[in-house]
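Bit of a strange request maybe. I'm writing a small parser for structure token strings and I need a real example to test against, not something I typed by hand. Could someone generate the tokens for this chain?
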Amino acid sequence: MKKIFIDGGAMNGNSVTSFRRFKSDASDYEIHSFECFSPNYDILVKRFPDINSYKEAIWIKNTTKSFYPGNVWSGTLLHGKTTGNVRYDKPVTVNTIDIDQFIRKFDKDDYIVLKLDIEGAEYEVLRHMLDCNTFDYIDELHGEWHYSKIGLDKSIHDNLINDLKKIGIELQFWESGIS
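Reply from user aminoacidic:
Good idea to test on real output. This should exercise your parser:
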């Protein structure tokens, strides 16, 4: 059995730092960090040459997508995010990865911690994971909800939370801070 930390929305590596602080056995984990925005990715790989870094966004399929940069911690794949000074006039094309396909490379008996701080894309990603039964692989789910920042109807948010609870999954709030 391997221990795996999948870091969606790695930014500059702040979540790796936080993970290593709060998980007493963090050194036992294989770390996979995803950051699609080049300036943040470049910092990530310099700070943490010992982890697996991917210059891709976690998404529902392997493709390319427009990424809208904002301030250092708030770019998004979604059009309509209202916070973080997102620059909808300056999209950047990024590669995306189907998170279900990525996770299925591991064994079901591996201990997988998934962290998603993906600025609104968590709704489509988590729904995709539910539809694909990806949660059979996940032991811990951490992240942030962004429904109010993307104008998502609260009922859609609540329905997703309820569907996750039905299978015994609860997203634990993740706040890594800026480092």
